[in-house]
User: Fold VOC family protein from Streptomyces gobitricini.
Amino acid sequence: MTSQLFAICFNATRPSSLARFWSGLLGWEPADGPDDDVTILPPDPAGFRIRFLPSQEPKVGQNRAHFDLTSTSPEDQLRTVARALELGGKHIDVGQLPEEGHVVLADPDGNEFCVIEAGNEFLADTGFVGALACDGTQEVGYFWSEVLRWPLVWDQDEETAIQSPNGGTKITWGGPPVAPKTGRNRLYFELALPAGADWEAETDRLISLGATRTDIGGGGDGRVLMLDPDGNEFSVRPLTRQCPAPERGMPLADPPSM
Assistant:
């Protein structure tokens, strides 16, 4: 049995505050869990979670990944933008052209995201969180397709995209040129290996596909930190009794200062 996409993780200066923003914007419920590991859960239990983990590393340049949120109408797009601004987001300029229909915003921690205009055919079958749009090569798109066993739904001009066989959010890579990597990514994938699966065989499989194992930033909870072919960090962890799927309903509160 292979790894599954368990969560998209944000390294955040104030995890609970950022979780409140995304919970309010997406309408996802917070999960029960420790104060320094805040998680929000998707409406579909089969979907990935979003986790917010404490980090004091400053943001340098644009993130290599951002969410694209979809709209059902021009009015719906305006409502999403207004809700984001009310929750603490802001408009930003990343070089978008005036005639482009999407709206570029940043969350309270400076992480970019887009609200896509209505009628986008590529994201028509995805739901509200249409895509996690990544800066990356064709090679890394092929890598993640093999890792997750998600089929390629776009492969043209060195741009790639994958989607779960069950549908939902697409993950896309824009192809070259890829911006140089500066420091650790603020957004990264967390994979989980189901209980009872062969841990060593799975890590060997990831390495055979092009991953690199690194000991930097590894935790004491069984996680292994690895790099994909573009040098992006991702973690792999076993799902055990000590690492259950989180339950819903925990109010969001900032952890105390250490």
